[in-house]
Write a structure and sequence with these properties.
Order of helices and strands: EHHEEEEEEH
Number of helices: 3
Strand order of the largest sheet: 1-4-5-6-3
Number of strands: 7
Helix content: 10-25%
Structural class: alpha+beta
Strand content: 25-35%
CATH superfamily: Hotdog Thioesterase
Shape: globular
CATH topology: Thiol Ester Dehydrase, Chain A
Radius of gyration: 16 Å
């Protein structure tokens, strides 16, 4: 039996001067912007970006996150950010790894968790909406075919 493919996306970017703290390394809060860009590309793969989420009647706030800073990232440094969808039935969990784009060394890892909240009701969903899980299922069906 073949392994199930991973639903992942990656972006390559160069850290900017304004990303850095006075010591010349990326400020810890800016890692979330890097995660967000990779997550945006990942959700585009599903045709379920933030505008699509809203149009389907849901918002997806982040309810939990974690970052492990493995190595400092200096400004003007090329990085590769990989986002992988690891949970989707009851919540949206995306795991991230930031690599040095030149050497491949792992610099940071982390995750974000989001849940669906109905726009009209304001209530959190305890399972992911069918509109989302259908898109994930369709992506896996295409990837395996």
């Amino acid at each position: 039996m073949a392994n199930k493919p991973e639903l992942r996306a990656e972006v390559t970017m160069v850290t900017a001067f304004q990303d850095a703290d006075p010591m010349g390394v990326v400020y810890h809060g800016n890692y979330f912007r890097f995660f967000e860009e990779a997550r945006r590309v990942l959700m585009d793969k599903l045709s379920y970006n933030y505008r699509d989420m809203q149009a389907s009647g849901f918002v997806w706030p982040i309810i939990d996150t974690r970052v492990k800073y493995v190595k400092p990232i200096p400004f003007n440094h090329e990085i590769r950010v990989v986002a992988t969808l690891t949970e989707w039935e009851n919540r949206l969990k995306v795991e991230y790894v930031i690599f040095d784009a030149q050497t491949g060394a792992r610099m940071t890892k982390g995750y974000t968790m989001q849940v669906a909240v109905g726009i009209e009701s304001g209530e959190m969903c305890f399972v992911s909406p069918k509109v989302f899980t259908d898109k994930v299922d369709a992506w896996f069906a295409d990837a395996i075919a």
